[in-house]
Amino acid sequence: MRKIKTLGLIALILIVGAGSTQVANAGIEPSPFKSEINKLNAFNNHLTAIQEIVNRVLACPPVGNTQGTVRRLSAMDRQLYLLDASVESLVEEVMGTQPDDQHDWNDVVPALTIVKDTAHEIVRSIDDPYLDCSHDDLRLVDALEQISLTADMLVENATKYIGDLSGEVNCGELITKEDCHLSSPPRMWNEPTGTCIDDQTDVPI
Questions:
Q1: What share of the chain is helix, strand, coil (3-state, %, to 5)?
Q2: How many CB atoms lie within 10 A of CB 58?
């Protein structure tokens, strides 16, 4: 009998807990841009995979025949171009959708900021002047530099899109917090959106 009462009490607690959760979530509508946010998360996963491969090449460059590695890097460069085009198409789709009373285009900004930051890490890894390994094969060097250029293009475009979606004015190429604070005159860094802006209002820095 005691066991049955205990099970009944547990069931009651679960029911009450579930009801409380439903009450807590009442009135909170999902973002109308959930599909686009999921796509951006998938884009970032792809970028992360590219970054991991690039880092492995940088850490342990192939010795001897590098033709296979060069082909793989060239394929990843094409993937970056496609990702950049996909991000552009997605942003156009978002900006062509009318926001509702609870959500606006800013919903997409955090996921897009993550994409921008991951692409920027690819650029920083390749452009790091303190790499332990040197690359003697010019084809390998050219392939890595091309990836850096394409990833940087993605960073610049994503930075512009973030400004468009959030309604902020971006400061050109000032894409990092450090660059933003060191600019002349100093600009404001918006932490939530990861953008450097000209607006001199009270923005978290």
A1: 65, 5, 30
A2: 16
Centre a 10 Å sphere on the Cβ of residue 104 and count the other Cβ atoms it contains: 18
The b-or-e profile of 193-205 (16+ CB within 10 A means b, else e) is bbbbbeeeeebee
DSSP, collapsed to helix, strand or coil, labels residue 102 as: coil
Q: Report the chain's C-alpha Rg in angstroms.
A: 23
Per-residue tokens: 68: 């296979």
pLDDT above 70: residue 99: yes
Across 157-188, b (16+ Cβ under 10 Å) vs e yields: bbbebbbebbebebbeebbbeeebeeeeeebb
d(CA 177, CA 169): 15
pLDDT tens digits, 47-73 = 999 999 999 888 876 776 788 889 999
Predicted structure pTM score: 0.67
